[in-house]
Structures are given as structure tokens and as C-alpha cells.
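Continuing from the previous page of notes. For each protein in this section, the sequence appears first, followed by its C-alpha cells. Read the first protein now.
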Amino acid sequence: MNLIRLMLLGLLSFQANWVFADVPVAESFGKTNRGEDVELYTLENESGMVVKVMTRGATIVQWWAPDASGTAEDVTLGFDDVAGYESEGNQYFGNVTGRVCNRIALGKFTLDGSDYSLAINNGPNHLHGGVERSLDKVVWKARPFSASDGHGVKFTYTSPDCEEGYPGNLAITLKYFLFKAENRLAVYYSATTDKATPVNLTNHTYFNLGGEGSETVLDHVLQLNANQYTPCDDTLIPTGEIADVAGTDLDFREPTAVGDRIENLTATPSLGYDHNFVLNQPESGQETRMAAVLFEPKSGRRLRIDTTEPGVQFYSGNFLNGQKGKGGKPYAHRSALCLETQHYPDSVHHENFPTTILQPGETFESTTIYSFSTE
């Protein structure tokens, strides 16, 4: 039984024994423009990692990771207060996106004989769950917990029927768990509904392993565990084809610098990398599969992502525009990237894609594990 399997089984098995005592304490992070209080929780471990999460959008606000010399830096984009996250400069920094992350063509779908219309907020399409009450913009309930091998925060939110146009009352639980002795953060999602509805949840953290505010991620070396991807039309909606990456600028099967071929894509509709990769099947007996390995040569930081999800969206920060982030640092074009574990975009319109439809009586479950190391 491999390490990832053991870790995942351990994560699931200790849930029944979580202890809500001697755990991270909430501090105020301000108020939303609706007057809602926002809390911030700090997770720390023995290996020098610190992760700060807030209740608005169940957002990862800071993620401090040691470099090869032991110096920790914050490696994720974000803001110093709630006002920043509610500003036009926020491009889903660190938050949970959904009910359906990524795109739905024309913001419409039909389910069980009923037609549904969603917000159009990305060209002609629907993106990341909507505009006013998508999961990144609501305030979640939070409760910290501890276990023998680490501690975390449990977030809950019930999205009411018809919120952002989606059917059903969707009860969502999200848990961030930081392991005590290893620089690993596990993110565990679950959801239930009382009416059939599409569900596709991810975390939208922007990484720069050289430290947030660093000028570029084009020097980062990326490997993706994907032999295939889902080609898209000019509005980034999948055509339904599943194509091989071999011989294309999307071939990251071997470690490759992000900047090596990106200019070949600058004049395309994606403006760089903004593609869903079809992850290779897990090895026999594994629940998770490796999605990606990201390495930054100067710091020596390495990030490995394992997931139960069938896909990962690699986005190269093409719309970052110099907006001021934490400490007033400008976030330049392509100065961070996202690796969003997910089901494929627009799955509601493609029967050959893994389904995103959650039925009453079923439970949506998804786990993604972020493991940092150095060399």
C-alpha cells in the first residue's frame, strides 16, 4: 500500500475522532461590504509551514513554505484585508470556486427536463459559479479541529435552491488539514443535494514558489501527469474531443519550464496556458493520482499535487495586470500560476466526459493533497 493511499485513508479514518479543543483560534479579518464578519484561522506545523484561511470564500490567504535553506516565504497571491478580496483586483485568489468551477457554455444547461440559465460572466459563457453569490463570495461557517497528526479548519455552507441559477439545496463541507510533521495540506470536499445539480469544486490558489510578488513564473519547471487534454473553441469551451498532448505545446509529461513554449500560445484564445489536462489513471489500488509537480530552481521549493479528480486546469496568470496585492506588491502578468484539480469544463454538455451531476442520496467527494519539499 503506497504512501499516498495510506495518507488518504488516514485522513478519512480520523474524521470520526476529530477533537474540537486546543485548536487554532479565529481572529477578525474585517467585514464584507454587506457587513458580515470575516474570520481568519492560522494553521502551523513543526516543519515551518503556515497556512492562513478565511471564511469569505473559504479562501487560502497565506501559505508560507520553507526554501532549501529553511527560510519561509508566502508563495500565494492575495490581499491584506477583505476589501482587497472584494475589489476588481481579485481574480479568485486562493478561494473555493463553484458550484461549478471553470466554464459552462452560454450559461445554460438542461437537467431532468428543466432548463436552467446562469450568469454570463466570461464572454458568452458562465465561469466559476456566478457573480453575486458564487462560493468564492459568500461567508462560510468555520470550526477548527485537531487530530493526533495535525490540525485544520472545517468550513460549511449550504447554497440554497436557485442560488446563482443552480437547482437544489447544496450542503457543502470543506476541510483544510495541515499535517504536523510534514509540509502537506490536504483539502477534502463533500456535498449533498435534495435535487439533481451539477457540482465541480476546486481551489483557485495562485502559486509563485519564489514568493508572492516575484516577477515571473516562466522560470518554474512543471510536470503534468497527463497524456491528453480537452481542446477548446475560441471561447475556451471544450469541443468534446480528448486529444493527445504529444507533439503540442501542451506536452508537460516531462519537467519543462513554463516559459519554454508559452509565446507560441500568446496569440491564441487562451492567451497562454489556460487548458484542462486529462490526468492519467491512478495506479492499481490508489484512490489518488499525481496531477502535477512544480519546481522553482532559485528557492529549491517543490510542490507536488495529488488528487482524486480526473483533470487539472493549468492557468499561467495571463490576466494578472499589476494589481497591488499583499504589502502593496504588484502582481505582474504571468507572475503566478494556478493548478486547479477538477472535473472537465462544460461537462454538463458532454456525455463522454466524467459526469458532474450530483443526485439526491449521493455524496460528492473529492480530495486534493499539496505536498511541499525542497532540493
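Done with the first. The second protein uses the same format. Note its length before scrolling.
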Amino acid sequence: MDASKKSNVTGNKTGTFQMRINPVVKREVEKIYAEQGFTLTEAINMLIQQSLNIGGLPFLVSAENREHIKKKAIAKLIDEIEAGWDSARMEGWVSEDDAYKLLGVSK
């Protein structure tokens, strides 16, 4: 999309949007967003802007969401472990005893 035509939720706010929501749910979600420093309106505007930024929903919508997040976390952990092994191979190994000494702690 041309940058001059790109939508931005921080621009003029002349449109309106109404929705119905359970009042208990509304109070609970307002509290969650308030703890992050946002109003419900600001949070909804962020959702909309992020949807525009990526051209879709900014989160996975499926019954497998928990499993997907778990797999991503495991993949990231494995990448970090491999990076640690690569670093150790390139920079030299440190024995367990030396590591304790470097950290100034005892076993």
C-alpha cells in the first residue's frame, strides 16, 4: 500500500463504532487494559492498527493456539541452546568449577 494512503488509527477520529458486550466482561477487560495504561477504546484501536499493519488478525485464532505457542517457544529455546553451544565451541569451553569461580558462587 502507498505510504501516503496507509491507514493510521492515530489520525482523525470522525467515524464511530458501536458494539454490545456483557457488562461484566467489559469491566474485567477494562481493568486488564487499565493495568497496562490503556482504555478499552485505545486497546481496540491498537488491535485495528495491528490488523492493518499485518493484513489480518494479529494473533492465531484456532483451537490449537496453545499448542502453536508451545511449539514456537520450544523452537526458540532450541535455537538459543544451539547458539550457546556454537558460542562455547568458538570461544572455548569453561568447566563447571571455573564457571562457579567466574560467577563468584559456590556449589
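What the second structure shows: Residues 60-107 form one domain. The two ends are 59 Å apart (CA to CA). We return to this in next week's lecture.
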